[in-house]
Recover the amino acids of this structure.
């Protein structure tokens, strides 16, 4: 087989700034050793997130020019609505300024004290919105998904038995909806099989609970189904995605991921009453139902992006470039979460820097060193992001895994950028014995990783 190439040519370029190691040390220190607080222009290769960082196509940019900015009933809304309906099949399409706004609206309506929301794994904003409503967010990943080393096809799956057990224990009346996140971002960007979505739906139906998909990476998930699940090899990604959505009663979507835009999202659902309540909140917090916190031009770009993202040449390149990074790092001995996920490679910080205790944040230490060594920005997904303190003892309760995420923006970097990343990560790994722990000097009460400040020990 020939080399899988970037399925586009470059029409417009954006220079990146080079800094010296010395400069980066001082930049990082001033940012409290938290890469979220670094200026983006001081980053060479930005793998902080794949969210809102996509390069838009020429057609999306022309859609930006062509956007209808009418307050009500804009042509761009109808194009957006048609694209989302065609993909998801849902009856009500509600645009929001990003994914979390859709979550906020949804959980404001269905959440609240005494309620539980099960999910294969909540993304951080999803969890925050569930908890902010007073409800409890429950993660039920399949067992194999909790093991970072096993190679399996669908490690993002929901634990179906645990889900049913949970419903029986808590009572279906206390569970306003079940969510399933595709791909499973917080669990390594691992895909969820169609079989697992179907079984989740069966359980949901049995107890008369609606099923919602957190659909941010629906196209990447559908591509994995095509490649890995029996019976899907000859079905188009678009049709696979449609089949996924047909199993659900609604979805939340961050268009900043698989709609290939820099801002946007939506809530889509079938239930008329829920849709009415959602639009009522939308008008107060986002905007009129035909723009919902977005400009007409954004709606155009989303509609176009939803068509481009299911292109199989694009997905082949997308998934292969992440896999290539994972393969090369593995070859150099770097411990990563296996197998490579759809949008990111996750370094296994516990194995990478075993000399650093979890209370001293091994992932954060790796994140800092990747920046100092090569100007690469990554993010810790471990005790900094998800750590909690025990109410009685004040001791840190760590999540199951300590990871460093290298998220790959869509259509932004070329193979030589990825080769450079491989070199830097490998160099940091070779010098891993020098890595030191960190201490938190400031933290906010919620989503602390965004603003926390650290000090090296
Ligand atoms: C990004 C993301 C969200 C939130 O979307 P925003 O657009 O960042 O608000 C929700 N769920 C998952 C799985 C995500 O990756």
């Amino acid at each position: 087989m020939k080399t899988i190439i970037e399925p586009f040519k470059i029409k417009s370029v954006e220079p990146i700034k080079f800094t010296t190691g010395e400069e980066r040390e001082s930049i990082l220190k001033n940012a409290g050793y938290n890469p979220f607080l670094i200026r983006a222009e001081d980053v060479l290769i930005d793998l902080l997130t794949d969210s809102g960082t996509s390069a838009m196509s020429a057609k999306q940019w022309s859609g930006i020019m062509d956007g209808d900015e009418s307050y009500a009933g804009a042509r761009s809304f109808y194009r957006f609505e048609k694209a989302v309906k065609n993909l998801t099949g849902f009856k009500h399409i509600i645009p929001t300024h990003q994914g979390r706004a859709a979550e906020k609206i949804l959980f404001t309506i269905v959440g609240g004290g005494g309620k539980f929301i099960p999910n294969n794994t909540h993304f951080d904003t999803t969890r925050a919105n569930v908890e902010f409503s007073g409800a409890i967010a429950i993660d039920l990943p399949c067992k194999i998904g909790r093991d970072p080393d096993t190679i399996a096809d669908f490690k993002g799956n929901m634990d179906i038995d645990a889900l049913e057990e949970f419903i029986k224990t808590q009572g279906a009346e206390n569970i306003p909806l079940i969510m399933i996140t595709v791909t499973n971002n917080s669990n390594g960007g691992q895909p969820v099989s169609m079989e697992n979505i179907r079984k989740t739906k069966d359980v949901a139906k049995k107890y008369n609970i609606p099923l919602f998909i957190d659909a941010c990476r629906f196209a990447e998930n559908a591509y994995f189904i095509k490649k890995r699940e029996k019976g899907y090899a000859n079905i188009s990604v678009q049709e696979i995605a449609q089949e996924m959505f047909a199993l659900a009663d609604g979805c939340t979507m961050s268009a900043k991921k698989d709609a290939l835009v820099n801002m946007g999202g939506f809530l889509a659902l079938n239930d008329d009453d829920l849709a009415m309540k959602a639009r009522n909140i939308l008008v107060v917090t986002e905007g009129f139902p035909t723009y919902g916190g977005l400009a007409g031009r954004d709606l155009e770009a989303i509609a176009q992006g939803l068509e481009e993202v299911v292109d199989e040449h694009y997905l082949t390149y997308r998934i292969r470039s992440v896999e290539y990074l994972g393969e090369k790092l593995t070859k150099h001995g770097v411990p990563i979460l296996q197998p490579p996920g759809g949008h990111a490679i996750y370094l296994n910080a516990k194995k990478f820097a075993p000399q650093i205790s979890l209370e001293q944040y091994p992932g954060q230490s790796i994140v800092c060193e990747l920046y100092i060594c090569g100007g690469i920005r990554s993010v810790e997904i471990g005790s900094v992001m998800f750590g909690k303190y025990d109410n009685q003892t004040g001791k840190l309760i760590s999540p199951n895994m300590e990871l460093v995420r290298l998220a790959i923006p869509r259509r932004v970097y070329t193979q030589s950028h990825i080769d450079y990343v491989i070199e830097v990560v490998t160099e940091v790994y070779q010098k891993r014995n020098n890595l030191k722990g960190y201490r938190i000097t400031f933290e906010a009460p919620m989503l602390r990783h965004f603003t926390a400040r650290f000090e090296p020990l």
The longest strand covers residues 92-96. The first helix runs from residue 21 to 30. The two ends are 49 Å apart (CA to CA).
